[in-house]
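Example A, followed by Example B.
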Amino acid sequence: MADLRTDRVAECAQRLHADAYINVQGDEPFISPAAIDSVSEALEHLAPDTLAVNAYTELTDVGAVLDHNVVKVVVDADRNALMFSRQPIPYPRGDRPRYLRQFGLYGFTGTALRLFRQLPHGPLERTEGVEMLRFVEHGHRVQMLSVVDDGLGPVRRIRVG
C-alpha cells in the first residue's frame, strides 16, 4: 500500500520533534482556524489511552451521505470512533440515523505517530482506504471532535462541541 498522508506526517515527525502534530488535509483548504485551535486544545487534554483527535460534522445532505468520497464515522457515547466507512453507516433500518462526516483535520501525539508507522495496515483500512481505521483496528482510541460548519469557506462560522 502506498504511503498515506498520516504516514508522511509521521515521517516528518521523526525529523521535527514536538509534543503534538496537527494534519489539515489538502481537501479541506478552508477549515476555520478556530477548528484547528479546538483540535490543538483537545490534544492537550487527551485521555492517556487515546492517541488521536479527528474532527467531524453532521451530514444533512443525502447526496453526501451516499457519496463514497465522503468518509462517514460512527462514534460511541464518549465520542470515540467505532468505525469509519465510505458507505452510509449506520444502516438506515427504522428511524433515520444521524450521519457523521469525518473531517480531514487530525491531531496526533508524537507517540501516536510513531506507533502508527509500526502498526500493520489492517483489512478494514485496506478495504475502506481510511487511515484512522489503523488505530481502531488495533484497539486504539481516536477521539472524535464535533465541528458544526456552515460551509462558507474562509469566513465560515463554526461551533465546536
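Example B, a separate protein, is given below in the same form.
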Amino acid sequence: MIRGPVVNTAQFAAIETEILRRLMLNQYKSHGKLGVIVSGEPNIGKTTTVSHIARRFERRRRDIGRASGGNSIPVIYVSVPPSCTPKLMLGEFAHFLGLPVRAHYNTGELMNTVASVIAACGTELIIVDEIHNINQKYKQMGEASDTLKQLSEKCPGTFVYAGVDVEASGLLDGTRGRQISSRFDILNLHKFENTGRGKAGWADLLVAVESSLGLIDQHPEAILRHASHLHAATGGVIGDLTGMVHMLAMEAIDNGTERLDLDTVFGTVPAAADKVPVAT
C-alpha cells in the first residue's frame, strides 16, 4: 500500500513549529484563540503538509497516552464545501464525528451539539481545508466564517486553515477578514527550487516520497539520480511530483518489477546498480 511521504523539509518544519506553538498558547486562552493559515498555489502540497502534521501530532498523543480511550479524537479534518453556509459547515463537522444531522436542527442546536462532542472527545487540533471557498463578500459565506469563529470559542482546539491563494480569496476581506488576520499567522508554501537550499530540500522530498512507496526492489535514494529530470517535469510542485511517482509505483507493482523505471520515462541510461541481470 502506498503511503503519503513524511516531508521533513524546512517549509514543513516551520509550519509544524508554528502550529504546535499556537496550540500550546491556546491552552491558556478562553477566547481570541490563535490559528494558522497555510496558503499557496493549487497542488503545491498544502493538504499533504497539514495532513502529515496532523498525523504526527495524533500519533504522538496516542504514544504518550494523551489520546487513550475509544472516545478520544485528537484531530479533526474537514473541508469547506462550495457555496458554504453555516449549517453546511457544521454538517461537515457532524459528518466527521459520525453525528446524525436531522432536518429539524437549527444552526444553534447543531453548533452546540458539535461543540459539546468536540469537547468530550478532547480534540486539540482542527484542520479546515479548502478555506478559500469562503469569500466574505457573500453574506452566507461570511456567516459561515462567523460559525467557525464561534465554534473555536465554544470548544477546545487550535484551528488550522489551508487553501489556495488565501490572501486573494476573499476570506480576509472586510471586518471579518481583519479579525481572522489578527488571530491567524499566514504561512505560504512555495515551489521547490532546483538551486541552493531549494535543491537540498527537493532531494529530501524525493527521498521521502521514494521511501513511502514500499517497492521491494527499489534501491534507496536511487530516485536522486533523476532529481533534475523530476524537477523539470513537475516544476518543483509536491502534488505533481507525488501524482507522477505514485502512478509509476502502481505500474511497477502491477508488472512485478517493484521499482521505479525513471530511465524509460526520461530516456536515460540505467546505472550499473539498477540494471537487471540477463538470464543465461
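On Example B: The chain has ten helices and five strands.
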